[in-house]
Amino acid sequence: MPTNPERRAALTDAGLAILAEEGARGLTHRAVDDRAGTPRGTASNYFRSRDALLEALVARIGERLAPDPAVIEPWARRRPGRALMRDYVGYIVERLTREREVTLALFELRLEAARRPEVEQLLGTWLREGFAADVAFHRSTGMAGGRREIALFHYALDGLMLDRLTTSIDAGTSTDAVVRQLVDRLMPD
Question: Model pTM?
Answer without folding.
Answer: 0.91
